[in-house]
What we know:
Chain A is an alpha/beta fold. Chain A contains nine helices and ten strands. In chain A, helix 3 (75-84) links the parallel strand 3 and strand 4. Chain A is globular and about 55 Å long. Chains A and B meet through helix 1, strand 5, helix 6 and helix 7 of A and helix 1, strand 5, helix 6 and helix 7 of B. Strand 5 (105-109) of chain A pairs antiparallel with strand 5 of chain B.
Amino acid sequence: xxxxxxxxxxxxxxxxxxCRGKTIGFVPxxxxxxxxxxxLVEAAKKKADVVVVSIFVNPIQFGPSEDYxxxxxxxxxxxxxxxxxxxxVLFLPEANxxxxxxxxxxxxxDKLSKKMCGRARPAYFRxxxxxxxxxxxxxxxxxxxxxxxxxxxxxxxxxxxxDLGFAIKIITLPTVREFDGLAMSSRNQYLSVKxxxxxxxxxxxxxxxxxxxxSGEKNDHKILLRVRSLIGSVPNIRLDYVVFADPETLDExxxxxxxxxxxxxxxxxxxxxxxxxxxxxx
Amino acid sequence: xxxxxxxxxxxxxxxxxxCRGKTIGFVPxxxxxxxxxxxLVEAAKKKADVVVVSIFVNPIQFGPSEDYxxxxxxxxxxxxxxxxxxxxVLFLPEANxxxxxxxxxxxxxDKLSKKMCGRARPAYFRxxxxxxxxxxxxxxxxxxxxxxxxxxxxxxxxxxxxDLGFAIKIITLPTVREFDGLAMSSRNQYLSVKxxxxxxxxxxxxxxxxxxxxSGEKNDHKILLRVRSLIGSVPNIRLDYVVFADPETLDExxxxxxxxxxxxxxxxxxxxxxxxxxxxxx
Lengths: 282, 282
């Protein structure tokens, strides 16, 4: 596993790789790798000739009151995991090279970025798309892999790739869950033992919505009430949102028909967790 | 000269060209080519192995009350000129492929885009940077050429390229002027014979400022008054702005020292014209 920190070196590596006729699979991460990330690495290894994983905690996707400083950075462990998976390149750029002091160019995907998590985190997706695009320019991948847990993120990145003509295929892989259903997330580390037990209610709430929708319930208000009431029954959890939305446009749907994205975000202790399911209404 | 309209075909052409070890010089234009554009084409031919010129009247850089529909599109003449200059590729994408109906991803360079022309044209630079970046993703040039007449534009594009990690060198070439000093512009076509005569006052005003600054005048207000008064002496011209600015940050300067950008914009009849000079204060 080669470690590259320099932007030009990464660009040159990718250029030479592609000119040799090899495809590049890219997994951008913020580190603190879990099985969700590793499922992306495995998919990249299957799909592409050369696999590049980046670890970079992106400062501009965090709001001023958010957890940029506390975000876990277990670099030695992450390196060991990636060594074990025998990837080709770990791209480890320095923050002052990616977002130097006078950084002032931003990419924003209108509409999609304002919904769902965009409401509570107004600069979040702008920070994601800007830095993901910069990484695309540096890593020049053929394929890039994201997890479905960050459903809104991958939809927004697909839209950016299409709108701005990046020659990159975005591949989304299913959410990986803990034994009890909790979606894997680096932020699960923030949870106390008790909060970790309580957090399972989020997945249970999604499953409740799925069950009701798939069994033919058409009253979205009724289902949402039940979901909110279930989550509300657990102390220390504050629901940010739960929505039924079109999986492509993320517009909220009132009529439960066809494929529906059921997505939620909630605060538990220091953590803000998100999760979602795609369900099939009758 | 090969004409390419399809985005993927252009991308593939560029990829193959670069993998053959050839460099690509790119001249993005809105057509209605004049000697200013052609000086960029000549520079591209000297600098790069393969020259790609695009003609695309970018809808999203025009405001709702601006001249998108009237903008001159003499395509046959343009093609003839480019044939004569023996370029390799004329890239001629269709508007519905570059900015389809649901287009919603935008690149904005903060601060620099708000000054000077950004005040009267709030969505202008966002439209420019978004589409120039898309063309960069499709044409994948090593070098891209812009004219100094659009001084603010090339500064903003350089900033975007640096911030977002595009592996492209931006090369700026001097403004090409008519016999009497008027900066060449496709929009000069909008001028009546009389307005064309009157328009020369803009260059004269810049020369007046240069003369005063270079002869050691330190009172910026006094010079600006004289410049405004000179332009005001011509009927039918409405000055939008005239500024003395730092050539890198575009911040207005009060102390006249070192290199200074003297830039202006003015309305004459149906046209909005811009011009600038870099002057050396004592």
